Amino acid sequence: MRGELCVGVGSLLSLVSVLLMIFVHVGQINTSNVPRNVYMAKVNVSAYGDALSFAIAPDPVFGLYTDNASAPLQAAAGLRQIYKFGIYSHCAYLNDTAGRCGNQTIGDQFKPYEAITTDMSANWSIFTQSFIPDSTFRDSKFLGHNSKAAYWMLLLGLLCAAAAFITGVAKHNMTFLVSTLFAIAGSLLLLIGASIWTVIIQRAANINDLPVHSHSGDQSVPLGIVVSLGPGLLLTWAAFACLVASVIPYMIRCCTFR
């Protein structure tokens, strides 16, 4: 393999990793087309109202959801249908396009239970506290702390990937060595960040299987809250794979450059 090809392949892979992570970082900063469709985790609560109706029948469920897409978040203005969480903010949607995002915060914490209950009116928020059993989904401290730690891993991983790309351009054995080290460090950081997000989403998704029983206890339906991973996490794993792959051509060029 010619040296120029090694450099080109390594630089291309590290650049792709950088671009993928940039997409991850813009997820859920607003409701425009690209950010709206990039998120780390999604919480669908569209069926939660039906579960409540089943559990408290024949009493009706009024005022749980809002039909105002512009209503502020975490202000008891009403539950939305879908919540999507990025690493700087979360957004809530009435449908595929109509929604609103919360304030942007560096390393915004993944706290789905807090996000939905603070949108509910006080009576439904109190009821939900006793209705949803203790689970990882409710453990805002655990989910928030780990998602915050994952943010820093992903940010540092992005910076290392960018440094690997920049230093790999110069034709010098020392810069090839530096780019190799940056690619290795970035790969480890992205691996840690992606792994943390994968674990916390999977653990929060345990709520997907929780049932709701009728008054008599002889019937049950799903709770109506479904947690799933999003494209942002898949992009993160893809960025990790690209950066790992870039280590090989960088290392080959480092060892063979004269």
UniProtKB/TrEMBL annotation:
Pfam families: SUR7 (PF06687). Keywords: Membrane, Transmembrane, Transmembrane helix. The chain crosses the membrane at residues 7-26, 149-169, 176-201, 221-252. The keyword Membrane applies. The keyword Transmembrane helix applies. One of its GO terms (biological process) is fungal-type cell wall organization. The lineage of its organism: Eukaryota, Fungi, Dikarya, Basidiomycota, Agaricomycotina. This is Actin cortical patch SUR7/pH-response regulator PalI. It comes from Agaricus bisporus var. burnettii (strain JB137-S8 / ATCC MYA-4627 / FGSC 10392) (White button mushroom).
